[in-house]
Design a protein that fits this description.
single chain; about 140 residues; mainly alpha; about 0% strand
């Protein structure tokens, strides 16, 4: 004897479908309201935002200005490298010191390190999946 008769399973399936349809209708309604709000107030918000931040806009917007800004960005990032290298050396020294004194490690510190490693691996896997076009099995041909 089947503990879940076919009629009961179909009734549950129908209830789920009705519930999902109602949720979809609610979502469509909220998306419509958001679209109407943006249509009505979007240009006002844009104008206000640009007015508040006009000191950051470079005029005239020419190729030369864009090239200058891109060079400023590049060299600003390059100027940060020595500080980052120094921070990396400090972190590496800290890890080396922890490894030398590993007998003094607590379960809490080891657990945090393990969770950090797992998180790094998870982000790596996520990047791989995204890079493959959101497939788990391989690359698109």
């Amino acid at each position: 004897m089947d503990p879940f008769p076919k009629a009961t399973t179909e009734a549950v399936r129908n209830r789920i479908q009705v519930s999902m349809a109602a949720r979809l209708q609610q979502l469509q309604s909220k998306a419509c309201q958001a679209t109407q709000f943006l249509t009505k107030h979007g240009s006002t918000y844009y104008k206000q935002l640009m007015e508040q931040n006009k000191q950051y806009v470079k005029e005239p917007a020419t190729i030369e200005t864009c090239n200058e800004l891109s060079k400023q960005l590049l060299y600003t990032h390059l100027a940060r490298i020595p500080g980052r290298a120094e921070s990396f050396k400090k972190e590496l020294d800290y890890v080396k010191n922890m490894w030398k004194n590993r007998q003094d490690l607590t379960v809490e510190v080891v657990g945090i390190a393990a969770l950090f490693g797992i998180e790094c691996f998870a982000w790596f896997c996520t990047g791989e999946i995204v890079g493959r076009g959101f497939t788990f099995t391989g690359y698109y041909p």
